[in-house]
Each structure stands twice: as C-alpha cells, then as structure tokens.
Amino acid sequence: MTGDTKSEATLLDHHMPIWHFRERHWVAVSAPRDEVLCAAREMTWREAPVARFFLAFTRNKLQADGRVLDDFAMGGDTVLELSDDELLYGGIGSQAGPVRPDRPMPEVFRDYAEPGCTKVGFNMHYADGVLTTETRIFATDEQTRRNFGRYWFLIRIPSGIIRIALLSAIKRRVDGRRKGPAGRSGDRASDQL
User: Fold this and answer.
1) Contact 27/130 with Cβ under 8 angstroms?
2) How does residue 189 score in pLDDT terms, banded at 50, 70 and 90?
3) Residue-wise pLDDT tens digits, 75-88
4) Are 91 and 78 in contact (CB under 8 A)?
5) Does the reported pTM lie above 0.70?
C-alpha cells in the first residue's frame, strides 16, 4: 500500500486514506479558486479532445458538448463530496460491472470491503494557485489487487495523458476568460505539466 504525507488533508484523504495504485498531476493556474473550479465543472469533452480520444476505446459514449465532470458524476451516483476547493468522485467496481450499494455512495465508500472489488477515488483540488487531480485505486482483496495491477500497467500512461489533457483544458478555459486587451494570457498549461 502507498501513502504519503501532505501538509493539507483533502477530501480524498478522508474518503480513501489507503490505496494500492495512484496517480497525481497538477497545473499552475493564476485565478481565484471559484473561477478555477467553475471552469472544471463547465469543461466539455470538446475542450479536451485528447481525453475524449483515449476514452473512445472504452465503452463510454461521450458527447462532445457533454460536461466532463457530469459524466464522471453519473447522475450524482459517484459524487462523494464537493467543497469550496475540491470536487471528489468515487465508484466501486467488480468483474460484473459497477457496484450499486443499497445506501448512498458517500456513506459506504470509505469502509466498503466486499471481496472482488476495486474502489476508485478521483478529485480536482485547487490550493495556492495549483490545480491537482489525483486518482487512487484500492482493491478489496489480494487477488483483485494482482489482477488490477496488470490492468494498471497497461492503462496508467493513457490515464495520465487523459488527466493532463483535462487539466490543460481547464487552464485554457480559465485563461480564455482572463485574457487581457492585448490577447495575452499567463503561463501556458503545457509549460506547467
């Protein structure tokens, strides 16, 4: 299992303090927190074509004008918690497909331990001019962890590319709103990734 020390606990830390697999990416964004998280919520797949391309290889049917985080939220079923500086989504899966607990996901996610399942937590967090996205995966038993490890080996790089594309799209959206009269904006997202 993996863990690391952070100066500031996140909602993801609370809902998923232990994990087996993880990826974290960031981009510097010089804008007020509300503006950055609003851009994250409003971002569409059209603004992140690289992410949409990679996800086309899955069974997901993504509409170009669909909001990315609305698709992650799956009608609210996967929203774990939303705060002023963090948007947190989570889901539980098994070989049979998504697990739909009898109680709301935020109530069961942290302690869910039914064998044969994986829990996935995904956030967007903004603090001190840095927007991060982190994905954590926890397998509920050793066999599932080994199986997922093989899958993770294959998808980790494309998954990272998707996350970087989403962060870049958010930064472009924020910068587009903040362009000055000369048409110039701050640092390019690619310079920060």
Assistant:
1) yes
2) very low
3) 667 999 999 999 99
4) yes
5) yes
**What average pLDDT score do residues 171-180 get?**
84
For β-strands 21-28 and 130-139, DSSP reports them as antiparallel
- Rounded Cα distance between 137 and 20, Å, is 6
**pLDDT > 90: percent of the chain:** 73
Contact 87, 124 (CB under 8 A): yes
The encoded tokens of residue 54 equal 């990679």
The β-bridge partners of 82 are 87
